[in-house]
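Progress note, sequence design subtask.
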C-alpha cells in the first residue's frame, strides 16, 4: 500500500540503524532516537530490529491510494512500523514533508508512559570549566526535559556554574552533556553537531541516552 503524506506537525522522519563512519565529513551517525522501542515495534511487525520506520513526535496525516486518510499522533517520541520496513532513509536526516510517499499500512506503537528516568553518566573532559561542585549539582536534582529534538534535549533545573574558561571547539558524541552559557545542560542526540564549543560536564552512558529523550524528567547518577 502506498501512503502519501498530507500533513506534518512535528519532527517526523524515517529512521533505522545509525550510519557510522561519516563524522569526518560533518555527518553524525543519526539512526533511531529510541533504539529499544524501535526494536520492539519491529519485532511485533516481523521485521529485523533496526528496520527503518517512521519516527514520530507530533501529528502525521497520510492518504492511502483509495483516498482514505489516517492520522497518527503522539505527544512523545514513538514509531509507526510496516511489515518489511520503510525504504532506507537518506544519509542525512530529513523530516517528512507534504507529498512524500511511505509504505503502509502503518501501525503506531503505543507511546510509553512519561516518567522520571534515572540516567547514568561519567565525568566529562572539562572539569576545569565548571565550579568544583557542578557535577554534584547535576546529580542532586531532577531536571525537566523541556525541548527535545534529534539534535539534543535541553534540560531545565539548577544552573551549573561555569568558571569562564575559554570555549574550545572539539568533536562531539551522542550523549555528551554540554552546558550553555546560561548554565543549563543539553544532552546531545543522534543528529548532534559533529563539533561544538560548549564545555562538557559529563557524558551519558550509551545505553541510557534514549532514556533522556523518552522521559519528561531525568535524574543523573555517576556510574
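Output:
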Amino acid at each position: 500500500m502506498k501512503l502519501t503524506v498530507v500533513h506534518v506537525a512535528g519532527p517526523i522522519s524515517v529512521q533505522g540503524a545509525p550510519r557510522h563512519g561519516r563524522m569526518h565529513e560533518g555527518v553524525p551517525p543519526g539512526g533511531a532516537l529510541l533504539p529499544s522501542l524501535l526494536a520492539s515495534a519491529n519485532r511485533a511487525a516481523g521485521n529485523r530490529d533496526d528496520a527503518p520506520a517512521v519516527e514520530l513526535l507530533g501529528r502525521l496525516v497520510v492518504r492511502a491510494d483509495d483516498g482514505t486518510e489516517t492520522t497518527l499522533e503522539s505527544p512523545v517520541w514513538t514509531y509507526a512500523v510496516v511489515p518489511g520496513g520503510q525504504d532506507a532513509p537518506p544519509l542525512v536526516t530529513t523530516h517528512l514533508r507534504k507529498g512524500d510517499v511511505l509504505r503502509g499500512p502503518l501501525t503506531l506503537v503505543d507511546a510509553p508512559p512519561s516518567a522520571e528516568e534515572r540516567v547514568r553518566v561519567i565525568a566529562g573532559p572539562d572539569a576545569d570549566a565548571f565550579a568544583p561542585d557542578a557535577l554534584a549539582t547535576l546529580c542532586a536534582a531532577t531536571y525537566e526535559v523541556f525541548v527535545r529534538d534529534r539534535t539534543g534535549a535541553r534540560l531545565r533545573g539548577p544552573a551549573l556554574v561555569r568558571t569562564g574558561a575559554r570555549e574550545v571547539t572539539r568533536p562531539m558524541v551522542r550523549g555528551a552533556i554540554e552546558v550553555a552559557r546560561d548554565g543549563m545542560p543539553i544532552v546531545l542526540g543522534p543528529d548532534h553537531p559533529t563539533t561544538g564549543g560548549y564545555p562538557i560536564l559529563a557524558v551519558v552512558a550509551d545505553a541510557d541516552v534514549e532514556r533522556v529523550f523518552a522521559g519528561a524528567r531525568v535524574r543523573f547518577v555517576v556510574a
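The chain has a mean pLDDT of 93. Work on this subtask will continue into the next period as scheduled.
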